[in-house]
Amino acid sequence: MKLAGANALVTGAASGIGRASARLMAARGAKVALVDIDAAGLDSLAAEIAAAGGTAITLPADISAADAFDRLAADAEAAFGQIDLLMNNVGVLATGKPEDIPPEEWGRILNLNLLSAVRATHRLLPGMVARGRGHIVNTASFAGLFPYAWDRLPYVASKAALVAVSEGLALYLIPQGIGVTCFCPGPVRTGIGKTIRSWTPGIAPKGPGDQFAMLEPEEAAQTLLDAVEADRFFVVSDDQALIEMRKRGADPEAYLRSRLP
Ligand SMILES: NC(=O)c1ccc[n+]([C@@H]2O[C@H](COP(=O)([O-])OP(=O)(O)OC[C@H]3O[C@@H](n4cnc5c(N)ncnc54)[C@H](O)[C@@H]3O)[C@@H](O)[C@H]2O)c1
User: Whose CA is nearest to atom 25 of ligand 1?
Assistant: First the structure.
């Protein structure tokens, strides 16, 4: 998927990885539909993109709503004609002991992190299949690749599911000429920490480990979009993650025990 001349829709575009990705898509010649619940953040990004000579429209919305993508997709298609590149990127985090996180909170996280991607894909995929052209990016996480923390189980479940769904979509879509990229970032300096909901007072969030460097969103976006333009499926922000995956694959029992606190 070459970005020059493509039309993209990015969710979670007002902040962090989504913002940096949308900005870089526009810099590489894509028109970008910016979706986020933070309307002011979208406005400031659209102004940045326009000042740099790019094209963006803002589509403020809460994508936890079941019907959000009916209007969002229609508005994006009305502006650009068709959407070639969908980046399902919104993700939120809740932490707490497993016995403290209520099932309703599982529902909130899975709805936003996983089912919003399902809904966006369900709405935009038929056009891509009909055209035999398109690309879907799902932002997962190291949290979906190997175990490192017990304090964020709904998040882990949503990210592991996104990895599995991306793999299945790739099997189905690549033979039809449609690309899929499963993007798994490790630590990236974004706003996600400010929105963490904690269900157990006093526990500090646990990262994947000191072996992983904290990246800037622009670095993550560049890694991602180079991979999208090269039509790569599996993309990690830090190759150290592959070492963890190899260790886990070689001996899952020993690997789990090595990660016990
Ligand atoms: N930052 C990291 O270290 C890291 C690591 C691995 C994976 N990720 C993943 O990267 C993705 C982007 O996260 P980020 O770190 O850039 O976070 P961020 O908080 O900076 O950006 C997330 C954006 O999503 C928007 N959003 C939240 N709820 C929404 C809703 N209901 N409707 C519409 N928009 C909504 C927020 O307003 C925000 O602009 C997420 O899926 C996250 O899980 C992040």
Answer: 12
